[in-house]
Amino acid sequence: MRIFIAVRHAIDPKQYYGGLWSANFYPALRGLGHELVESQVDLAPASRFMDVPGDYTPGELALRGRLTEQLLSELEAAHRQRPIDLFLSYFYNAHFEASAFDRIRALGIPSINYYCNSIHQFANVAEIAAKVDVSWHAERDARASYLGVGATPVWVQMAADPQVYHPIDAVRQPVACFVGQNYADRAVWMAALIKAGVPIELYGPGWGVSDSAGIAAAPDGESEYLGRPQPVPGSAAGYSKAIREIIARDGVIEGTRRIVTRLANRQSQGQYADLFVPHARGAIPFSQMLEVFGHSEVCLNFSNVLLNGPGSQLVPHVRLRDFEAPMCRACYLTGHTDEITEFYDVGREIDTYLTPDELVEKTRFYLAHPDAAERLREGGYRRAVGSHTWTHRFTELFTKTQLAHS
What is the SS3 assignment for 25? Predict the structure, then answer.
């Protein structure tokens, strides 16, 4: 197929999601023999407000309209040159006018929009989902949300690229690692491990003193972008804006509960800060992440996300790391979800936990039993490279959408 693809949220790969999904998707698609026509429209200006689901300012609507026309012009030019067989995007509502999918359809080009935050941020893609031909969602349990807006959902989970995520030669150390930011309830799980004396190394933002969980408030201040106030994170204006949004969305009773929960979580984060400092190693580049996986006896991960932002319900979620770490031949221990059991034989290929005590117990076990860790490591690696590459996923996607032989 000749595929027009728009999955980068910024042209600059150093910016947020500037290169993540192109790095994941492009090698697999090209390896399957597809020709890619990459959009050169820079979505970065709209990505600045892509966490806003709707009710856009006039400035935001004008920007989205311009980006939409630029994308359609690119597509039409490419289609005149030689027919395009598929329009593949990763759009939030903010990136593209949903009604423009009618114009793509009129060209005879089917469209698929990918989205991987459908459990806890579905509102941010609801408009797009309702108009695109196929909504590719990574979370099994998101189907009802898509059907609720009249979408055509297809569930195909995330994966990893074995050319990028692979084992490296390293001497294993009797330590458990975690690579990722301090988010949701991760501090609670990590505190349980540290208090139990489990040797831990933490890589990523939010675990040290200077960058920990936003404890120190920023000076008051507020700027504006396309007519929308942009409070400085941690400022009084920022807190005021968050409170107004929570109350408006959830009502006084539920909104107040969420605000109280959020304040309590921030207080606990402050209490844990000193606990994490001796174990914090700071943020690391991608290349070093493979080294960390290689020298650590156990690789930890946490599966919970916040359903509707800070103070809201925690829900388990399959993550990219669930495929990346096993592909790097890590002894992988993550939060349990029903969905993860559809991709791994738990206890033989990866292992999971449900409670802090179980997390401590299993981490200690694998650190104390390198042979058991090695068996898990080998089983997870073989399953990941044998079943969970992006090549597998695109083959599944195109089969389910009946595009496999287009």
Answer: helix
Alpha-carbon torsion, ordered 354, 293, 184, 224, to 10 deg: -160
- The SS3 of residue 187 is helix
pLDDT tens sequence across 315-340: 888 999 999 999 999 999 999 999 99
Mean per-residue pLDDT, 173-201: 95
Domain 2-157+389-400 has CATH 3.30.70.660: no
Ordered DSSP codes for 213-248:
TT-SPPPS-EEEETTEEEEPTTSHHHHHHHHHHHHH
User: For the residues 211-216, what does the mean pLDDT come to?
Assistant: 36
Percentage of residues of the chain with pLDDT beyond 90: 76
What's residue 15's pLDDT?
Answer: 84
Residue 180 to residue 190: CA distance in whole angstroms: 12
Among candidate residues 395, 390, 335, the one with its CA nearest the CA of residue 363: 335
The amino acid occupying position 314 is L
Residue with tokens 């109350």: 247
What are the Cα distances from residue 350, in Å, to 128, 190, 330, 366, 375?
35, 19, 9, 11, 10
**Which amino acid, residue 109?**
I
Question: What does CATH list as the number for 173-387?
Answer: 3.40.50.2000
- Structure-block tokens of residue 205: 């933002």
